[in-house]
Amino acid sequence: MLNKRKKQILDYVNRYKTKNGFSPSLEEIKKKVGLSSVSTVHHHLKDLEKLGYLEKQGGKVRSIEPKEIMVAIPLQGYIAAGQPIEAVNEYETINVPKSLLSRSGEHYALKVAGDSMIKEGIFDGDTVVIRKQSTVENGETAVALINDNEVTLKKIYRERNRIRLQPANPNLKPFYFKEVIIQGKVISTFRNLEEQERKDNFKFNQFLCGDVLEMFKKIPDNSIHFAVTSPPYNVGKDYDNHNDKMSHQEYLDWLYKVWIETKRVLVDGGRFAINIAPTGIRDFVPIHHDYIEQMKKLGMKFRTEVLWYKQTMLKRTAWGSFKSPANPHIVPSWEYVLIFTKGDNRLDGDQRMADITKEEFMKFSDGFWKIQPETQRKGHPAPFPEDLIYRLVKFYSYKENNILDMFGGTGTVATIAKRTGRNFVHIDISPQYCKVAKDRVDNEGRQKKLLA
Ligand SMILES: C[S@@+](CC[C@H](N)C(=O)[O-])C[C@H]1O[C@@H](n2cnc3c(N)ncnc32)[C@H](O)[C@@H]1O
Predict the structure, then answer these.
(1) CB of 394 closer than 8 Å to CB of 355
(2) How confident is the model over 124-161, as pLDDT tens digits?
(3) What CATH number does residue 90 fall under?
(4) What is the Cβ-side half-sphere exposure of residue 160, based on CA atoms within 13 angstroms?
(5) Is the pTM of this model over 0.85?
(6) Looking at the 3D structure of the chain, how many domains does it have?
(7) Which among 370, 373, 422 is positioned nearest to 394, based on CA atoms?
(8) Which end of the chain is less congested by CB atoms within 10 angstroms, N or C?
(9) How confident is the model at residue 12, as a pLDDT?
């Protein structure tokens, strides 16, 4: 197996060559891969040449020829290198150098979420190539299926009455199981350098207009202090650019991938607030229960919930069997805000950056919030009321923290972030809503300047 550095160099050379038609210079490789000297690059290239991955033509620097043949294998979603997470199957393909596969067998790739295998050179965000097989030798790293539908990446040890799943991270404890189904062995690992480069150059206070999972690829790991969102509820709302009526399972599978990314980008101690309304008066759909289950499977801690009482009962029409117990309806006059944390409950920060007042703190820490729904719709079916976001942002983050809304709509979160001196990242698939959001934030900036 190639070591991490050599794989980085090989990936970069391959990618550069495909893009430009010629190979990068030693200096370019040095800069890209973060090496200290050109001679170290040269040394690695020599090794790659000896191993048959690259070949030089006429001894020229810009003539490293990748000999690599690329092969498409299925990318079957995420694997936890940490707490086991529910198996998700995505059916994309990914091109990998043939040298990363073993000579025989069926292969697939998985993206790694978590840092439990770092001592084996497998890092959060890496992609691992797996060969399908149902047994491994003691000490080999494998994909283990446990509890029917959770998968994890660990070193496997068979002990007398149990199987030990051993993390390769001295800070983490092993898991023990009576039964484990081995789904394959790790053959190799690599990192998408282009994606990494995009993350390294990421700037906050951005509107990322596009599909949430695509846009997440730009956001660095462990960079967001507070994520807050109201996802599409899959109830057939008329959004500008989104199918809000998938099958329930399809919807949950899609959101689960969004939650995995959310966890990845949160800092340790970072919070995630999901606003969700109880939906369906006749056919009640408890999506909030599903979200809580999903978060728990991901290893997020369910910290608390806020009841947002919307004070809208005056407009009531759906009674069901009026004045009869035959089939009366309860009309949800509230929404939930479910609060989860990644890792520690405590969010580190400079106390001088805590800008919540005593009155605000006392008021917001009572979890029953009476707030009218937003009346200024701005062409959107379900915008947040500003007060709801103001309370959450002030209560759960410090000034200058980074705040994310991955279904940002008309930009309420970005606007409040700007107003309160936080940084924001706004994602939405709709160009129309992104424009509304940008105008709102620009306007907020102008107001601030006028007041200053
Ligand atoms: C419930 S609304 C959020 C409204 C927002 N809280 C506000 O204050 O305006 C959900 C948003 O998710 C967006 N959306 C739906 N599917 C998406 C996707 N695949 N990627 C990114 N955004 C998406 C919709 O355009 C919609 O604006």
Answers:
(1) yes
(2) 778 899 999 999 999 999 999 887 777 888 999 999 89
(3) 2.10.109.10
(4) 0
(5) no
(6) 3
(7) 422
(8) C
(9) 86
Higher pLDDT, 200 or 19: 200
Protein residues with CB under 6 Å of any ligand 1 atom: 211-212, 230, 232, 239-242, 380, 382-384, 407, 409-410, 412, 427-430, 433
Instruction: Evaluate if residue 88 carries a pLDDT over 60.
Output: no
Does 154 qualify as catalytic in the annotation? yes
Same domain, 444 and 331: yes
**Enclosing domain of residue 37:** 4-66
CA of 408 to the centre of ligand 1 (A): 6
- State in Å: Cα 441 to ligand 1 middle: 17
Closest to 207 in 3D by CA, of 7, 378, 408:
408
144 DSSP β-pair partners: 152, 182
Ligand 1 atom with the smallest distance to the CA of 413 is 8
Tokens matching residue 338: 């479910």
Alpha carbon 50 to its chain's center? 39
Question: Do 277 and 410 belong to one domain?
Answer: yes
Instruction: Tell me the best of 378, 407, 439 to mutate to test the pocket of ligand 1, counting ligand atoms within 8 Å of each CB and taking the most.
Output: 407
**What is the whole-number distance in angstroms between the Cα of residue 362 and the centre of ligand 1?**
31
CA distances from residue 247 to 234, 251, 252, 427, 445 in whole angstroms, order as listed: 8, 6, 9, 24, 41
CA angle 130, 2, 24 (to 5 degrees): 115
81 pLDDT above the threshold of 90: no
CATH number of the domain enclosing 8: 1.10.10.10
CA trace torsion 393, 396, 399, 405 (10° rounding)? -50
* pLDDT computed for residue 148 by the predictor: 72
How high is the pLDDT of residue 238? 66
Q: How far is CA 369 from CA 225, 306, 307, in A?
A: 23, 7, 6
Cα 196 to Cα 388: distance, rounded to the nearest angstrom: 35
Q: How far is the CA of 434 from the centre of ligand 1 (A)?
A: 10
Token reading at 434: 């992104």
Residue from 233, 239, 291, 336 whose mutation best tests the ligand 1 pocket (most atoms within 8 A of CB)? 239
**Same domain (yes/no): 253, 353:** yes
Atom of ligand 1 lying closest to residue 433 CA: 27
The whole-number pLDDT of residue 388 equals 98
Q: Probe ligand 1: pick from 218, 242, 386, max atoms within 8 Å of CB?
A: 242
Give the torsion sign (CA, 15, 16, 22, 24).
negative
